[in-house]
Sequence to fold (707 residues):
Amino acid sequence: MIRISLHLTPSLEDLLKDLPYRSVVDVPVGTSVRDLLKEAGIPTVAIAAILQGRTLISRDDALLEDTHLYLLAPVSGG
Amino acid sequence: MKGYAGRILRIDLGTGHVEKQTLPEPMAAAYIGGRGFVARLIWDELPAGIDPFDPKNLFIVATGPLTGHLLPASGKTHFGCKSPATGGYADSNLGGHFGPALKYAGYDAMVLTGVAADQSLLVIDDDSVSLHPAGRLWGMGALSLEQKLKADYGEDFQILTIGPAGENRVRFACISHDFGRQAGRTGIGAVLGSKNIKAVLVRGSQSLEAHDPDAFFEAGKRAFAAIREKPGFLGWTPEGTAGITNWVNEVGAFPTRNFQTSISEHYATINGKAVIERLKITDKGCFCCPTPCGKYGRAQTSLGEVRVEGPEFESIALLGGNCALQTIEDVAYANYLCDELGLDTISGGVVAAWAIECFERGILSQEQIGREVHFGDLASVAYLFDLIAHREGLGNLLAEGVKRAAETIGQGSMDFAIHVKGLEWSGYECRNAPGMMLSYLTADVGAHHNRSWVLGHDVVGSATDVHALITGGGEIRALPKARIGGQSKHVIASQHLRPLFDLLGTCRLQYMELGFQIEHYERLLRLCTGRSLAWKELLAISEKVWNLTRAISMREIADFGRAYDYPPLRLMNEPVPNGPNKGHCISRKEIDALLDEYYDARGWDRQGRPTPETLKRLGLEDVTKRLKR
Fold:
């Protein structure tokens, strides 16, 4: 199992404030981001971008070790 | 007053009279700046009921107290007038560097009245204010003109320009600045053109004072550092606003083929990634911006090569989705054409798509248009934009905007003329997004997204059953029908929050998109001006301005009220034909429920008019008295 810590932007926290999501989740090695979010109780459609360190990753990327993910809410275009 | 330049520059273009008025402290105290100044000056000084192209219409430029100071993204400039598009209140803003330069020249705001006798440039060089002949420049493109004026007058001038669309009073003409920043909405470029002004140049050499300069400087530095540390800084900045394209399409909110549907099959060739991989030369930011969302690039198309800033999301949505242009290069070319001709890309994309649909339905003929026009065809879109900007042929009608054009053409075309109050709809399709729908319906300038953006709440928030979204793992094949009710609290909160930055004179993106903390703004405003205002107090001022702008439209449009707050029939009567929102639409009855809830929450009557009690609560008793007369 690996431990994933999720960090939400304030606008995402605002969007999800009524949901009982978890911000620390233990999942098997190789779990996709999509399945991780499902496990955490976060609707994937709430997420516009996911950062692992300085790298943008996709919902279909597999998670291989303990890590921190930064989740960004959808925001308006200009 | 610390933080401010301390003066309003007033120019009667007809008489040449120039006045440098001391900035009234009560106005600064009550309305902060920027959009607040625009609204109050229009209410106090615009002769009621005039035509938007009457010489007595005001053309107002206003900055905020934070504009031009060394803190993040403090380059915003606001413009206002009576709108040629809607006949009501108008404002629009841009980033870049003009506002800071205006303050360095010694002015917080500028008010133009009258009409210059000859086609002119307005040149403000610190205390010197003069009109220069512009006859030989009339007809030039907005971008080309800025380049020429930079060469002729010097790089240290900051310049606003209009293109042929502004000269020809196209009702959705914009103002251009810094080779790609536009105050795009509500037709303010046409008002500047109606005053015979082709460009405004400003150069300033003065300093701005701050209440506590040392602490202010340190707080500004900390603010820059805080933004760079935000996780969103790395996630959002690379693609800028174009980065939202995939998500908007995924949730079925991407306006496509004149809003016939809400999902585009070619979104991946016009998204943020395409901008970066196929167009971008460099990032481009506004004054003091640590998160440069502008992407300057080049595009090679069948019509030639262009260099352009953008496209940003709205241009992608209305040109790439709504006109169905298939590649980011084609979108960039159409974006460039709008910028050069001086057309708003949003309204331009809506008007062009409406004309194409009229042609495809046989409502407009090839003879009337001058050629065949089709969705997805860059040459068709370019042809229409050129006609519109020069008011040639059918372009003379299209230049009136989609509402007036549909009223003239008839034959059911009003049902798919996508606007509110006469302002064309921007980049979010709302047939399963009641909060965003309400945002558009009640935005004070017409169908514009920057007053309130609650699409996230519609899709994942309290308005929707999210259980299915979570257990579905994000595979969005079918979104549930959104519940109606409860939207007004999000919309009203957003309508106070987002325009608040337009009072301060800073860009909102660092707060809205990156989560830059409110405390920074409170601290920076206090150290800059000496005024201690809690965020809650600032929001109360923003609410006051919101009610004042509504009152302006009530005064200017005889029957203004609830009837002006409805969407076109397409968005009420036609279910979305495909995509995740297939089968959904928001009925007239549901729209009425949304409006009733909103009016009640605002303290307005069921006709959408602020009640005397509400105006009194907000300190707008004088507005009540004048509306009664």
